[in-house]
Transmembrane protein (Prosthecobacter debontii), 352 residues
Amino acid sequence: MLACLGAACKGMMLFDSAKQPLIILSLMIVPEFWAEARVQKRENNRQLTVRRYGWSDLSQDEAQTMAETRAQDALRRLWAGEHLEKREPRVPYNGAHGVPIREEILSRHGDAVITRNLYGAQCLNTPDVLFADVDLSSDTPATLTCSIYVVLLVVAVAFGVYQGAIGMAVLAMLVALVIGYAVATWLHQIRLKMGGGIRNIALKRIRAFAQVHPQWHLRIYETPAGFRVLVMHRTFDPASEEVAHFFDALGTDPVYVQMCRNQNCFRARLTPKPWRIGIQAHQPPRPGYWPVKPEHLPARRRWTALYEEKARGYAACRYLESLGSPGVHPQAESVCSLHDERCRSHSGMPLA
């Protein structure tokens, strides 16, 4: 059995692309070591080649052993006829296979890990201190658009039937299809205006949750794209129904929600996005999946030095207010101090 020890580990079942269990292991938030194994089988004019990642917080050898074990297991199952991906996608973190976040580790702070993400920003990863990202978007919800289309089409068909003319019904249906999105957008804009704007609507959702759950302690931060909420009164399991309800009540960014469930952690960006502070060049190499080859490290370090210098003049979020119970869990207090310091949330600097 592979050991997977480290400061930020949780017991978890590893799944492949067919959602079948491969092996039970401790899934680290951010492993220190990464490896990839390639295995092949050829028999009776049939050939299969499979690649799988392995990871470890102890050694490169252990990461390689894990990669080979996973690759052999996937090859066996593919050869038996199961539908699996032959190669895992090269992404920093993803929703498939149970592969953990693949980013450069900058520092560890107890259970919390600070990493550098694909585009160069520093990110705080924690297994149990709850963060929620609430991004503001004025886009018309797809559910509203679909509902308007259905209503207009039903009205069009009813009108055609009432008139007793198939041609009239078809024409009315075409008109409904043409104007459906415009009607949905118009209704959505009216809703936003009546609610005091998208920012106020998002804040109202957060405050409404706090009123219904007075035992919760919420810290609210403003971000360039919306709000961030840090929960202080206790720690949480990212996979729990309680967390899912919290995310849904706040209208949390669905990409962030999926990341939390798949990676078994919570996450907060600590430093600006490069393009918001005038850095248009991508962090080298491109794509900059970690670990990078040694020949790319000098260029990466030069880019990082420029980025960190410019980032000093900006804040990733701004503290607004606290709601609910004054109770504070020691783990949450520690993460909050680290978060606020690194985000410059009380500095008054421009957000980026």
The first helix runs from residue 60 to 79.
